[in-house]
């Protein structure tokens, strides 16, 4: 393909390919597909997307076709592979300048350069890294920005290669650029701090944008995160690496202090907080990949995190995501198996013993006590926003509380996981502390004192989370009879958090330490909650305290409550609106049906009539349909031969669930096959309708 004559033609076809008219678009796409394997086509594309005077949409499309071509035709062994001569020309053209004005196109160019680097760097492309380093040093802001962006994607790609030879090349690359990356990071950080200290928020925002770029998207996040974490075999022997990590703590302190002088809602504050989080990620990644190299940082990490999260030092500067990161850092140190000596001390490595010694020296009784009390009485407390959500939308509140985000990213689950890990590790020290907190809250509660109610909720939460650790220290049966049962019966509106927490607490202990003889009393309490329509307490019970879903369940104890319980649960199933909640209620109903078996028959009429409607309403919710299938399985088993009365609804459900030509089968097939099997096992005779479902079998086989 002659470049001069082809450029005009390719440009015209690319322009047509950006059209919204399918009559114009489709032929253009077909033509471009034919050109993909033509020699010189990618050189033409390079000329087009680097020509800033052309239409942005055309240049965008050109860079996408170029990137896709690299995936398909760059490697030597690929069919229709590009010639070495053309690849040499393309490599040179890609790094001629870094002045792309459009951010989206600049990102795509950086990605495609990284794709080429994965195959060719450094053997066929030794000039790439030196060129990038020189471009980063220039004073022009746009060129430096684009070079940094490319540097990030290239290094990210090279860091992901895992073959021994590739790792060796990456170690060599790290050695050659690490000092430069540290220097660049320090320069940008100092510039920002200088601006913020003089009160120039606009200049600081501009400076911080480059700092954030060099950290997250480019030099620092790549070189001083990717390279620090992946660029050294034993990083603790490298003075620059350890110096950088120690400097991270100093920079974090400086940035946190700077945040005091920045308006809370400003763009600068938002960028500053993002930068602080990225700093902490370097520490977390390094600890995860190099626990023994991190030993020298254990003391400082714990001092820093505990100071900001559990003392007054953090007041006015910490924010939720930073607290989460600090708690994750403490958790990873506390729970790290590399820092736990063997039962036989002689079998432990010196590195493990040293790390354990540092941990033991730090976690003294006063420190552990303060952490425990602060977690429970500060971080476990329900917030005003949560209480408002409870009042306005109790069902959503319950779903969020019991589901929530991953412990790594959301504050409440993160604090609870940290409490569990610290309590498990230091239970002999913390058990008396927690029991003292429980003892101080026993007896009647002042309904006018909201803070006391919230603290009791938090303390009960801690006792539930630490149930296994407290097995020998708490007589839960006596506590249930003497205190908790009475608290379930308090009807005052302000006591809702305690009723909710008590039923959750029982759910945590029921599989740990709860006498079977007390089950009838518990069933009475649950019936009262259902009858009182205490939705949040009931839903927490359904999520954590299923009385029929454990090994201690006795049918004879439950039968007196079966009709009332089943009727009220069915009413609840009709009332709730969220898919997750309906699934939880269906799960409980399924458990009840499974455990009482044929004795459920007098009470299932209403459920049998409702399930077809629920099935129709859940057409877009396959997980809810899975729960319906499970309920039907237990219903068929409980009804036995009488399940034939369900066939008008049951058989079409089986037909759909086991038909591999229907998209929902991906979710429904397993439960559908089980339902098909139990339907056959309980069928009094083989009907033509049952036989018709067998048409699905050939595809299944």
From TrEMBL:
This is Importin-11. The gene is Ipo11. The keyword Translocase does not apply. Keywords: Acetylation, Cytoplasm, Nucleus, Phosphoprotein, Protein transport, Repeat, Transport. GO terms for biological process: protein import into nucleus. It comes from Anthoscopus minutus. GO terms for molecular function: small GTPase binding. PROSITE patterns: IMPORTIN_B_NT (PS50166). It is found in: Cytoplasm; Nucleus. SUPFAM superfamilies: ARM repeat (SSF48371). Residues 28-100 form the Importin N-terminal domain. One of its GO terms (cellular component) is cytosol. Interacts with UBE2E3 and RPL12. Belongs to the importin beta family. InterPro entries: ARM-like, ARM-type_fold, Importin-beta_N, TPR_IPO7/11-like.
